[in-house]
């Protein structure tokens, strides 16, 4: 039988069952009588130990080469693993030029170094772990919204018509929320961010939800907090070794920081309170905090620390700062809308959302002021024909991974990062 490394490692039958395992050599150790190889195929962090006698030619079996091993699965005498593969036949599928290969056996390469090799870095333990976590987190998010069914990916076809890249699925979700009371989408979104920051990409994945008949921001915040916590618990229980490796190698102390986030109720402050807090500490900042001005990353990070490193919702932002669709709070001279951002440790803004302006006349005026009336007739229609109070949010998926794993640079949590002047692969 052909087995993945993961299945081989977990095999119950170790009484010499004949199996075939394929993968890449992660280490070679040759002793007088025997040769030890470790084979990895991406199915688990742990590699499978292959034991071969000295009749096998170790020169061929270089670090990085791809191989197919046939042999018997047996109980390992070593305490380090339960199972090992006693090789009867080893076939090199593809040689690896070890001298030119950018990764060296046993060396722990920093993430910045690995980033130079987007086409090869997924062969390292650390990127393997990050990407397995990414995959588990994707599944966890889908199962949060849709507990029992498989995901259907829609086909895209542009024919000969000019097409635009979407910056958000929100407006389409709002259309859907006029018939389905709870909808979500999870896919790539695009922003022409002229930024080399550690938390911006030109193409990132966003989880967006839209909920009809919501009564307040509170309703939305509850879903955001449940999404964050439920998905994270699923990831932690489905790939504990990979999360552990990231925490141990990349971000010592992250395990405790994450637990702290999971066991506390997220906090809530208003934008106005946030600005007050920041003003008290303005000597710490490059950008002076001021009511009516957007929060900078440095402000967001300060607020999270100020809140004891518990994620914090900031609500009710100045109307003048926010897009036309956010619901008017009709409050005092400091005019705000029902917007919410969730700020998290290490990252800053992770979620952005709002109640939507469901009142026809309010929306009509806001559109007129933005000069968008003509283009958004269809959007006004949604308010003419059975409008309901609704709201939604978007969560940056890469920032989510950064937050739970403690990864400083967003380019390290996506297989092929696209950012300013870099869409090379
Ligand atoms: O705050 P944003 O721009 O909100 C929206 O797009 C809303 N229309 C979503 C909605 O209500 N349906 O983006 C949402 C989140 C941000 O909080 C951030 O985590 C992430 O998306 N994000 C980015 N992540 C990586 N690179 C970028 N350039 C990002 N821009 C936003
Ligand atoms: Mg935002």
UniProtKB/TrEMBL annotation:
One cellular component (GO) term of this entry: mitochondrion
Biological-process GO terms, alphabetical: asparaginyl-tRNA aminoacylation
Annotated Gene3D superfamilies: Bira Bifunctional Protein, Domain 2, Nucleic acid-binding proteins
Residue span(s) of domain Aminoacyl-transfer RNA synthetases class-II family profile: 183-415
Secretion signal, residue range per the UniProt entry: none
Molecular functions (GO terms): asparagine-tRNA ligase activity; ATP binding; nucleic acid binding
Top-rank taxon: Eukaryota
EC number: 6.1.1.22
Record key words, sorted: Aminoacyl-tRNA synthetase, ATP-binding, Ligase, Mitochondrion, Nucleotide-binding, Protein biosynthesis, Transit peptide
Subcellular location(s) per record: Mitochondrion
Reaction(s) catalysed (UniProt annotation): tRNA(Asn) + L-asparagine + ATP = L-asparaginyl-tRNA(Asn) + AMP + diphosphate + H(+)
Main location: mitochondrion
Family designation: Belongs to the class-II aminoacyl-tRNA synthetase family.
Protein name according to UniProt: asparagine--tRNA ligase
Organism: Equus asinus
């Amino acid at each position: 039988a052909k087995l993945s490394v993961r299945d081989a490692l977990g095999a119950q039958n170790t009484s010499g069952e004949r199996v075939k395992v394929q993968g890449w050599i992660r280490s070679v150790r040759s002793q007088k009588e025997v040769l030890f190889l470790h084979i990895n195929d991406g199915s688990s962090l742990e590699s499978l130990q292959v034991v071969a006698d000295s009749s096998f030619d170790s020169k061929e079996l270089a670090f990085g080469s791809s191989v197919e091993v046939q042999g018997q699965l047996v109980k390992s005498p070593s305490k380090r693993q339960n199972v090992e593969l006693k090789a009867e036949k080893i076939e090199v599928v593809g040689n690896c030029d070890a001298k030119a290969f950018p990764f060296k056996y046993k060396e722990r390469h920093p993430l910045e170094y690995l980033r130079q090799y987007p086409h090869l870095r997924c062969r390292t333990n650390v990127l393997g772990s990050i990407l397995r976590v990414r995959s588990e987190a994707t599944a966890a998010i889908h199962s949060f919204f849709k507990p029992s069914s498989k995901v259907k990916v829609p086909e895209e076809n542009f024919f000969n018509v000019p097409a635009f890249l979407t910056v958000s699925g929100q407006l389409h979700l709002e259309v859907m929320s006029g018939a389905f009371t709870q909808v979500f989408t999870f896919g790539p979104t695009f922003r022409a961010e002229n930024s080399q920051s550690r938390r911006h990409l030109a193409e990132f994945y966003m989880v967006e939800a839209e909920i009809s008949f919501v009564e307040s921001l509170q309703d939305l915040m509850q879903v955001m907090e449940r999404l964050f916590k439920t998905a994270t618990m699923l990831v932690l229980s489905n790939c504990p070794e990979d999360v552990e490796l990231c925490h141990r190698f990349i971000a010592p102390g992250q395990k405790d920081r994450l637990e702290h986030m999971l066991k506390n109720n997220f906090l809530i402050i208003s934008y106005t309170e946030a600005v007050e807090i920041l003003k008290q500490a303005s000597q710490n900042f490059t950008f002076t905090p001021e009511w009516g001005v957007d929060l900078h990353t440095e402000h967001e990070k300060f607020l999270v620390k100020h809140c004891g490193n518990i994620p914090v919702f900031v609500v009710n932002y100045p109307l003048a700062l926010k897009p036309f669709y956010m619901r008017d709070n009709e409050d005092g001279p400091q005019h705000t809308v029902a917007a919410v951002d969730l700020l998290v440790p290490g990252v800053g803004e992770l979620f952005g959302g709002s109640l939507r302006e469901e009142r026809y006349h309010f929306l009509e005026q806001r559109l007129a002021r933005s000069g968008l009336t003509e283009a958004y007739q269809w959007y006004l229609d949604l308010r003419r024909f059975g409008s309901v109070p609704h709201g939604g949010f978007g969560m940056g998926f890469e920032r989510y991974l950064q937050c739970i794993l403690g990864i400083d640079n967003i380019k390290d949590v996506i297989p092929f990062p696209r950012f300013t002047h870099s869409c090379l692969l």
